[in-house]
Design goal:
By secondary structure, the chain is α+β, with helices and mostly antiparallel strands. Helices cover 39% and strands 12% of the residues. It is built from 27 helices and 30 strands. The longest helix has 25 residues, at 47-71. The protein starts with 21 loop residues before the first helix and ends with a helix. 1-deoxymannojirimycin is lined by residues 150, 295, 352, 404-406, 462, 492-493. The site of 1-deoxymannojirimycin (DMJ) has 9 residues, from loops.
């Protein structure tokens, strides 16, 4: 896709190249959209408002970029809560996500072409000089091939693309001599060792200095990679080849794509999520358009647009047809199994799929794009951001949100395709939410939990590379730009590559050497691009008419896992039994279970176990229904497990200079005030207590009275601390972890348990903060002395906090001052002075009730302990929540702590362990599938 219009061919400055009618049709799309944008109607946005919003995006970008440059550069990323750079190795490891960091000033490189899109040419010139001078690409560090390609190689190439454009214009960058391209080439060569496999699929990681095979490489033992990881190289690699005339990069990327195409599941034409890089076997056979696969599809279509190679379009269209047949269940996009594509693989969606409506615009399939986008927008309206994963009935499945740009991207493309001002309003909401909930004095912080509004100390580079580009372009008119965005295509990281590359240095043979397309004829390929004059004939209300029926899809309906069988059967035969409807006391249901090969085993301890033996099913169709039933049951149980936990709470710093903008993720207590029932929360100034561990009578009650007491974890029970501070007159308490460096970014939250006795006497709220979050408050005390916080179940509106704050500073000044002050605070304060004598660790239980009880390769089973879990005690299956909120406070299961040394904290199951379990279950399914096949 070009920058602005949905569907467009190449051409640009270097001359036309299209044999097919793309260019003309794209022009049609553009003119139609401008007619629509100008059309009068309710909701049309005034030019002034558009300009105001565009300026707001610029101001927000400045806030993010200047804080990165001032407080983090040359580090890879900014940590906006602690206001410093994230340097790999100096912070606790976050696992795979850290593989994007290669000590190469990631955020600066990823931001280069954003500066030019946002008209910040002088800043761009400065930034390029810094990159050339400072960045070292030869570090002994293991990085992700995928992330390094899309962010760093893409960033350098995008920077080079706009640098030569500016140079050609004659005003800026006159000194530029292809230095960024040189760096890109150097990096390209550093990625090549990863391709040293027989399949041609790259290893997922590479050591920038030592490659893959070298004894010092510390990588090269991996066997799997994700499909998107191996299939998202062609744009950057082909651009590198064509810019430099060195064909090897394009050749390698093509080979990887050819291999994936060869390995597609032939009956469904779908690809799985992960693949063995040596054998080409699908390791995970679930298939969707989100995490793990997303940009593979994106790059097939965009490779056709950039390179004009028909085979990429042929492949894309073949996959797209399969996606629309199996995965698209409008407005949902649900993962299925590649071998059994009528079988849903899960009942939740991940936020990465939000890019897909944008890709559908490029494909020209506007209707489903509008539908899915509208569904996603309603999820956002409910939670302010798209949670990383959400269920088919729109509950939060994974509450994090790292400020991903995919939804903004789709909003931009839909606006360009439809000209409907509705999408400008959507963009306005995104801007408002970012400012209200994610903006902190030192940048923008990712959401740790969209339900509580708490933050994570993280601002990913893609936030600057993508979010600000799409938001700015959404509100920008052609005359606001210093160049024509239509001359470029966006990579998956929104880097700009010029369309004229299609006619440059075509040294690589376009012919796929491994694939014959004899089985495909022209009917597989949709060669045309949409013309909005045909799409919206005399009907500026087209998009609205598609959205209208979906208006209340999130709030008012409860669409639980749409069954294709249910849909297609209509008034025909009875739909298969769904896990959510199952009642163990219903003889008819038991009969159906039997037909599906599922048996119910009553265990001695009162538990009920479900086991499926596909071979015992009445027919293969029944076996398939049985499989789905078991899968649904597992997921239902997993969901229940999750809901039995108390959700995390929020500690919001409301005093100057934070004004409610910093929200820390806190663990709840199983005693004291239940903050979910006291919506206003408890607000007060904080005071550290003496003794700091709170394990005996408080000796400074005068300092603590009417305050929120801060104390250190350890040396006695949580409930004991609570009683001591309550006696001293505190109105609440915060326990700070004594394990230095612990953080909710890296450790699972847990609940503070009682002491096994009746805790009704404790009436004040108690929350737990990990060491890093606790230090943010301690830092603030050192700097500002009087620090006021709000303890609540969900962060309160920052604007209200702003209103109630001291009005001494004008709003503009306070913004500036905020970042300066917060910075010095975080620099000055060291670790908590008191040390705990005994180390403690949070303990987690295994979710016993979910573990497959029968490991037979042809069977799968689940068992449940809880009486409210499906299948137990002849009770009916639970009603999966179809309620308004995601918080459903459950009865708390208090676990008595007998050993005060090791088992102080109640056992809870963190999300990671639930997901790990779920993966195990999926694997069991896959084994079974294999056996069946
Ligand atoms: C970006 O780095 C890219 O868009 C990638 O393809 C997947 N998504 C992230 C941001 O969410």
């Amino acid at each position: 896709m070009s920058g602005a219009a949905g569907c467009q061919g190449g051409g640009g400055d270097r001359g036309p190249r299209w044999r097919r009618p793309w260019k003309l049709l794209a022009l049609g799309l553009l003119s139609a959209s401008s007619v629509l944008a100008a059309a009068p109607g309710a909701g049309a946005m005034s030019k002034e408002e558009k300009r105001r919003l565009g300026n707001q995006v610029l101001e927000m970008f400045d806030h993010a970029y200047s804080n990165y440059m001032e407080h983090a550069y040359p580090a890879d990323e900014l940590m906006p809560l602690t206001c410093r750079g994230r340097v790999r190795g100096q912070e606790p490891s976050r696992g795979d996500v850290d593989d994007a960091l290669g000590k190469f000033s990631l955020t600066l490189i990823d931001t280069l072409d954003t500066l030019v899109v946002l008209n910040k040419t002088k800043e761009f010139e400065e930034a390029v000089k810094k990159v050339i001078k400072d960045v070292n690409l030869d570090n002994d560090i293991v990085v992700s091939v995928f992330e390094t390609n899309i962010r760093v190689l893409g960033g350098l190439l995008g920077g080079h693309s706009v640098a030569i454009m500016l140079k050609e214009k004659g005003e800026y960058m006159q000194w530029y001599n292809g230095e960024l391209l040189q760096m890109a080439k150097e990096l390209g060569y550093k990625l090549l060792p990863a391709f040293n496999t027989t399949s041609g699929l790259p290893y997922p990681r590479v050591n920038l200095k030592f490659g893959v095979r070298h004894p010092e490489a510390r990588t090269g033992t991996e066997t799997d990679t994700c499909t998107a990881c191996a299939g998202t190289l062609i744009l950057e690699f082909a651009a590198l080849s064509r810019f430099t005339g060195t064909s090897i990069f394009e050749e390698y990327a093509r080979k990887a794509l050819d291999f994936i195409w060869e390995k597609r599941q032939r009956s469904s034409n779908l690809v799985g999520v992960t693949i063995n890089i040596h054998t080409g076997d699908w390791v995970r056979k679930d298939s969707g358009v989100g995490a793990g696969i997303d940009s593979y599809y994106e790059y097939l279509l965009k490779a056709y647009v950039l390179l004009g190679d028909d085979s990429f379009l042929e492949r894309f269209n073949t996959h797209y047809d399969a996606i629309m047949r199996y995965i698209s269940q409008p407005p949902l996009l649900l993962d299925v199994h590649i071998h059994k594509p009528m079988l849903n693989a899960r009942t939740w969606m991940d936020s990465l799929l939000a890019f897909f409506p944008g890709l559908q615009v490029l494909k020209g399939d506007i209707r489903p794009a509008i539908e899915t986008h509208e569904m996603l927008y309603q999820v956002i309206k409910k939670h302010n951001f798209l949670p990383e994963a959400f269920t088919t009935d729109f509950r939060v499945h994974w509450a994090q949100h790292p400020l991903r740009p995919e939804f903004a991207e789709s909003t931009y493309f839909l606006y360009k395709a439809t000209g409907d001002p509705y999408y400008l309003e959507v963009g306005k909401t995104l801007i408002e939410n970012l400012n209200k909930y994610a903006r902190v004095p030192c940048g923008f912080a990712a959401m740790k939990d969209v339900r509580t509004g708490s933050h994570e100390d993280r601002m990913d580079s893609f936030f600057l590379a993508e979010m600000f580009k799409y938001l700015y372009l959404l509100f920008a008119d052609k005359e606001d730009m210093i160049f024509d965005i239509e001359d470029y295509i966006f990579t998956t990281e929104a880097h700009l590559l010029p369309l004229w590359l299609s006619t440059t240095n075509q040294t690589v043979s376009k012919k796929n050497t491994t694939t014959e397309y004899t089985e495909l004829d022209d009917s597989n390929f949709d060669w045309t691009c949409p013309n909005t004059q045909i799409l919206f004939p005399n009907d500026p209300m087209f998009a609205q008419s598609i959205r209208e029926p979906l208006k209340n899809v999130v709030d008012k309906s409860c669409p639980r896992g749409i069954s294709r069988a249910e849909e297609s059967l209509g008034s025909g035969p009875k739909p298969p039994l769904r896990a959510r409807d199952f009642m163990a006391s219903n003889p008819e249901h038991l009969e159906i279970l039997k037909k599906m090969g599922v048996s119910l085993i009553h265990l001695k301890d009162g538990r009920v176990q479900l086991v499926q033996h596909a071979v015992q099913a009445a027919s293969s169709l029944d076996a398939e229904d049985g499989l789905r039933f078991m899968q649904e049951m597992i997921e239902l149980s997993s969901q229940q497990q999750k809901e039995q936990q108390l959700p995390p709470r929020a500690v919001q710093i409301v005093s100057h200079p934070f004004f409610g903008r910093v929200v820390l993720t806190a663990g709840p207590a199983q005693f004291g005030m239940d903050l979910s029932k006291h919506k206003a929360g408890t607000r007060g100034f904080v005071a550290t207590i003496k003794p700091y561990n709170g394990c005996s009578e408080i000796t400074n009650p005068e300092a603590v009275k009417e305050k929120i007491a801060l104390m250190q974890r350890g040396q006695c029970m949580f409930a004991e601390k609570a009683r001591n501070i309550q006696k001293a007159g505190a109105i609440g308490g915060i326990v700070i972890d004594d394990n230095e460096g612990s953080s909710s970014d890296t450790a699972p939250l847990f609940q503070m348990a009682g002491d096994g006795k009746n805790t009704d006497d404790i009436t004040i709220p108690m929350l737990f903060l990990f060491n890093k979050e606790g230090n943010i408050i301690l830092d603030a005390i050192r700097e500002y002395e009087a620090v006021e916080v709000l303890l609540s179940d969900k962060a309160k509106d920052r604007d209200l906090e702003m209103e109630s704050m001291d009005q001494k500073l004008s709003e503009n000044d306070s913004h500036k001052q905020n970042s300066e002050e917060a910075t010095s605070a975080s620099q000055d304060v060291g670790a908590v002075s008191e040390e705990s004598e005994e180390g403690e660790s949070s303990d987690v239980t295994d979710p016993e009730s979910l573990s497959p009880a029968d490991a037979d390769s042809d069977s799968i089973s689940i068992s449940n302990q809880d009486s409210s879990v499906p299948g137990t005690n002849e009770a009916s299956a639970p009603e999966p929540a179809c309620t308004q909120g995601d918080h459903q406070p459950q009865e708390q299961k208090t676990e008595t702590e007998s050993n005060s040394k090791v088992n102080w904290d109640n056992k809870v199951q963190p999300m990671e362990s639930i997901l790990a379990d779920w993966n195990e279950d999926i694997e069991a399914f896959e084994m079974m599938e294999k056996d069946e096949l």
